[in-house]
Amino acid sequence: MQSVHRPGYRLVARIALAVVALVFGTGMTQAAVNGTDGTDGAKQLDIAPELLPPDMGQTTLAVVVPETGHTLNGMMLDYWRANGAASVYGNPISEPYLAPNGYYSQAFERGIFQYLPEVQWTDDPTIRLQPIGSTEFTHDRDTTRADGRRIAGDRRTARTTPAVNDPERQAAVWNEGGRFSNETGFSISGPFGAWYDSHEGWFYLGSPISEPFRHRGVTVQIFQSGLLMERNGTVLPAALPRENPGRYSVDTSPAFQIGLPAYSEDLFVTAGNPYGIDTTPIDGRRAIVVDISEQTLTAYQGNEVVLQTLVSTGLAPNDTEIGAFHVRIKYPMQDMQGFTNSTGEVVSVGSDEGEGERYSVKDVPNVLYINYDAEALHGAYWHNNFGNRMSHGCINLPLDVAEFIYQWAPLGTAVTVIE
């Protein structure tokens, strides 16, 4: 849609999109694994409907993961796919539940996903990891041997002293190009830092609460919401929920579902990729980078480029906003309208009434909003001038690209716009 860089516009856009979301209705698509709507699901889970994810265009398909016998649907399924699915956070080990900290949750082998309604109307991810790292740190610190002594082999002082307070460790971090958490003073560097940066660790893992240390024969580092471990050059979150579900109040009782399809990317990505790469067998987190100067979009899955295409971004004075965003809300088709002033700047959107020159585009296909400046990735059937700026702020895609991206990029997919 449109981008306007005026002080009051983000509020206007937010209200507009909030109203748009209400058009979907407040029925929840993922509250209950028995296929009921969110209201019934809220009753079954004893959770208030306002604590459940609203319908933002997430998948309506429910699946079962045969490896663990648990089900996935709605926003939990979307964010799981966006963030690497089983290759990053493992398979689900619970059904959705109300966690002790009051959030709608679902446990996976390597992390517990939670829906945070307080960040729903921001540009940040609305599904995060439950902060279980501090629990693990406390448990590890208090672990003793049968004779009453603490377990030996870990340098407890080294791992509990922030790098900023340890000159030797501080120098090592600087030498390897690392940095330090402003919140805790611990380091973010080396292989753990690389994983942290490539997986939006600031949102999902939170701040580090230890330095790296050796544990059970591998190098690990504890963060607020999990523990990273490095084994044979590979970094992954540790399977804390799978190993100790009771410690985090996770009920791993199997689901009793009949007739749900087994999870497969083929269920979600049915459109052909114009770039010629079959993404369904590829592991890894999904990310999109839009380059304004080159007028290109590049889609990544893990470290692999899975699509690259010319696009058309915003034409001045409605330049596409630079920054880090996420797929926020999706529509298979939407009418777009608004008003521009005498300089061509969009002054209002989504209304039949306004001041200035009115514009209206019907049946815009495969719309993925990425921020609350009302900017979206979407198909454009009204021009074929990709590679040149053409839009009111949105990122225009060729129709076949838009169809593929709509299926490939679930809610929560990171979208970075660079100059």
Provide a compact summary of the structure.
By secondary structure, the protein is an alpha+beta fold.
List the helices and strands and how they pair.
Blueprint: H1 9-24, H2 38-45, E1 63-65, E2 70-72, H3 74-82, H4 86-89, E3 97-98, E4 104-108, E5 111-115, E6 127-129, H5 133-142, H6 156-160, H7 167-175, E7 179-180, E8 187-188, H8 190-198, H9 201-204, E9 213-215, E10 218-223, E11 226-231, E12 234-237, H10 240-243, E13 286-291, E14 296-301, E15 304-310, E16 323-326, E17 329-340, E18 346-349, E19 357-369, E20 376-379, E21 395-397, H11 399-408, E22 414-418
Parallel strand pairs: 13-22, 20-21
Antiparallel strand pairs: 1-2, 3-4, 4-5, 5-6, 7-8, 9-10, 10-11, 11-12, 13-14, 14-15, 16-22, 17-18, 17-19, 19-20
Keywords:
419 residues; L,D-transpeptidase catalytic domain-like; 3 domains; 5-stranded mixed β-sheet; 21% helix; globular; disordered N terminus
Largest sheet: 5 strands, mixed
Name the shape in a single word: globular
CATH level 4 superfamily of the largest domain? L,D-transpeptidase catalytic domain-like
Runs in which pLDDT lies below 50 for 5 or more consecutive residues are 1-41, 141-155
Strand content: 25-35%
Q: Can you count the helices? A: 11
Highest-level CATH class of the largest domain: Mainly Beta
Strand order of the largest sheet: 15-14-13-22-16
